[in-house]
Specification:
Length: about 160
Protein backbone atom coordinates (compact mmCIF):
# COMPACT_ATOMS: atom_id res chain seq x y z
CA UNK A 1 0.00 0.00 0.00
CA UNK A 2 1.31 3.45 -0.96
CA UNK A 3 1.47 6.37 1.47
CA UNK A 4 -1.22 9.03 1.65
CA UNK A 5 1.08 11.48 -0.08
CA UNK A 6 1.89 9.04 -2.87
CA UNK A 7 -1.81 8.35 -3.43
CA UNK A 8 -2.58 12.06 -3.61
CA UNK A 9 0.24 12.31 -6.15
CA UNK A 10 -1.39 9.53 -8.17
CA UNK A 11 -4.65 11.49 -8.18
CA UNK A 12 -2.93 14.63 -9.44
CA UNK A 13 -0.57 12.99 -11.93
CA UNK A 14 -1.98 9.56 -12.71
CA UNK A 15 -4.24 8.20 -15.38
CA UNK A 16 -7.82 7.11 -14.75
CA UNK A 17 -6.85 3.69 -13.41
CA UNK A 18 -4.20 5.16 -11.09
CA UNK A 19 -6.66 7.75 -9.78
CA UNK A 20 -9.29 5.13 -9.02
CA UNK A 21 -6.77 2.91 -7.26
CA UNK A 22 -5.49 5.89 -5.25
CA UNK A 23 -9.00 6.77 -4.09
CA UNK A 24 -9.51 3.19 -2.85
CA UNK A 25 -6.26 3.29 -0.90
CA UNK A 26 -6.98 6.73 0.54
CA UNK A 27 -10.38 5.56 1.74
CA UNK A 28 -8.67 2.63 3.45
CA UNK A 29 -6.55 5.10 5.44
CA UNK A 30 -9.78 6.53 6.87
CA UNK A 31 -9.52 9.43 9.33
CA UNK A 32 -5.77 9.67 8.83
CA UNK A 33 -6.27 10.76 5.21
CA UNK A 34 -8.81 13.52 5.87
CA UNK A 35 -6.46 16.40 6.70
CA UNK A 36 -4.04 15.72 3.81
CA UNK A 37 -6.98 15.35 1.42
CA UNK A 38 -8.50 18.65 2.53
CA UNK A 39 -5.10 20.32 2.11
CA UNK A 40 -4.76 18.84 -1.39
CA UNK A 41 -8.29 19.93 -2.31
CA UNK A 42 -7.33 23.50 -1.40
CA UNK A 43 -3.93 23.45 -3.10
CA UNK A 44 -4.61 21.59 -6.34
CA UNK A 45 -6.25 23.63 -9.08
CA UNK A 46 -7.08 20.87 -11.55
CA UNK A 47 -10.79 20.11 -11.30
CA UNK A 48 -10.56 16.43 -12.26
CA UNK A 49 -8.12 15.87 -9.38
CA UNK A 50 -10.37 17.84 -7.04
CA UNK A 51 -13.29 15.64 -8.07
CA UNK A 52 -11.38 12.46 -7.13
CA UNK A 53 -10.24 14.01 -3.84
CA UNK A 54 -13.81 15.03 -2.98
CA UNK A 55 -14.91 11.52 -3.86
CA UNK A 56 -12.35 10.02 -1.50
CA UNK A 57 -13.52 12.32 1.30
CA UNK A 58 -17.14 11.38 0.62
CA UNK A 59 -16.29 7.68 0.77
CA UNK A 60 -14.44 8.18 4.06
CA UNK A 61 -17.79 9.48 5.18
CA UNK A 62 -18.98 10.87 8.47
CA UNK A 63 -15.52 11.47 10.00
CA UNK A 64 -14.81 13.94 7.16
CA UNK A 65 -17.89 16.10 7.85
CA UNK A 66 -16.31 18.57 10.32
CA UNK A 67 -13.34 19.42 8.10
CA UNK A 68 -15.41 19.53 4.92
CA UNK A 69 -17.89 21.87 6.63
CA UNK A 70 -15.14 24.09 8.02
CA UNK A 71 -13.45 24.34 4.62
CA UNK A 72 -16.77 25.06 2.93
CA UNK A 73 -17.35 27.92 5.36
CA UNK A 74 -13.95 29.57 5.38
CA UNK A 75 -12.04 28.79 2.19
CA UNK A 76 -12.34 31.65 -0.31
CA UNK A 77 -12.19 29.61 -3.55
CA UNK A 78 -15.70 28.86 -4.84
CA UNK A 79 -14.50 25.72 -6.65
CA UNK A 80 -13.13 24.31 -3.39
CA UNK A 81 -16.45 25.17 -1.71
CA UNK A 82 -18.34 23.40 -4.50
CA UNK A 83 -16.29 20.21 -4.09
CA UNK A 84 -16.67 20.28 -0.28
CA UNK A 85 -20.43 20.67 -0.65
CA UNK A 86 -20.55 17.86 -3.21
CA UNK A 87 -18.68 15.56 -0.82
CA UNK A 88 -21.10 16.46 1.98
CA UNK A 89 -24.01 15.72 -0.33
CA UNK A 90 -22.52 12.32 -1.15
CA UNK A 91 -22.04 11.55 2.55
CA UNK A 92 -25.75 12.16 2.83
CA UNK A 93 -27.99 12.20 5.85
CA UNK A 94 -25.24 12.57 8.48
CA UNK A 95 -24.29 15.93 6.88
CA UNK A 96 -27.77 17.49 6.89
CA UNK A 97 -27.43 19.45 10.15
CA UNK A 98 -24.15 21.03 9.02
CA UNK A 99 -25.61 21.94 5.64
CA UNK A 100 -28.62 23.58 7.27
CA UNK A 101 -26.30 25.51 9.59
CA UNK A 102 -24.66 27.00 6.51
CA UNK A 103 -28.02 28.54 5.53
CA UNK A 104 -27.87 30.62 8.70
CA UNK A 105 -24.27 31.71 8.64
CA UNK A 106 -22.82 31.93 5.16
CA UNK A 107 -22.83 33.98 1.98
CA UNK A 108 -25.17 33.37 -0.94
CA UNK A 109 -22.78 31.27 -3.00
CA UNK A 110 -22.04 28.97 -0.08
CA UNK A 111 -25.77 28.73 0.71
CA UNK A 112 -26.38 27.70 -2.90
CA UNK A 113 -23.82 24.92 -2.65
CA UNK A 114 -25.41 23.74 0.60
CA UNK A 115 -28.83 23.76 -1.08
CA UNK A 116 -27.53 21.68 -3.99
CA UNK A 117 -26.10 19.17 -1.53
CA UNK A 118 -29.39 18.88 0.35
CA UNK A 119 -31.18 18.30 -2.95
CA UNK A 120 -28.63 15.61 -3.76
CA UNK A 121 -29.32 13.97 -0.38
CA UNK A 122 -32.96 13.86 -1.37
CA UNK A 123 -35.99 12.74 0.55
CA UNK A 124 -34.24 12.31 3.90
CA UNK A 125 -33.52 16.07 3.87
CA UNK A 126 -37.22 17.01 3.70
CA UNK A 127 -38.15 16.62 7.38
CA UNK A 128 -35.07 18.52 8.66
CA UNK A 129 -35.75 21.27 6.10
CA UNK A 130 -39.37 21.53 7.27
CA UNK A 131 -38.24 21.74 10.89
CA UNK A 132 -35.71 24.41 9.92
CA UNK A 133 -38.45 26.40 8.14
CA UNK A 134 -40.71 26.16 11.18
CA UNK A 135 -37.95 27.53 13.43
CA UNK A 136 -36.85 30.50 11.30
CA UNK A 137 -38.27 33.93 10.52
CA UNK A 138 -40.29 33.66 7.27
CA UNK A 139 -38.71 36.90 6.05
CA UNK A 140 -35.14 35.72 6.65
CA UNK A 141 -32.74 34.63 3.94
CA UNK A 142 -32.06 31.26 5.65
CA UNK A 143 -35.81 30.54 5.69
CA UNK A 144 -36.14 31.42 2.01
CA UNK A 145 -33.14 29.22 1.13
CA UNK A 146 -34.79 26.28 2.88
CA UNK A 147 -38.08 26.89 1.05
CA UNK A 148 -36.28 27.04 -2.31
CA UNK A 149 -34.42 23.84 -1.48
CA UNK A 150 -37.70 22.08 -0.67
CA UNK A 151 -39.11 23.26 -4.00
CA UNK A 152 -36.05 21.83 -5.75
CA UNK A 153 -36.89 18.57 -4.04
CA UNK A 154 -40.35 18.94 -5.60
CA UNK A 155 -41.89 19.35 -2.14
CA UNK A 156 -44.21 22.24 -1.40
CA UNK A 157 -43.91 23.33 2.25
CA UNK A 158 -47.19 25.25 1.94
CA UNK A 159 -49.15 22.02 1.34
CA UNK A 160 -48.18 20.16 4.49
Amino acid sequence: MSTISENIGSITDGDLQARRAAVKELVAFGDEAIEPLIAALCEIEENDARWYIAGALARIGEPAIPQLTYTLKVYPDDDVKRYCAAALGEIGEPAIAELLEIFETEDGITRGFASQSLVRIGESAIAPLQKFIDSTDPESIPHRCAVVTLHKLRFDPENV
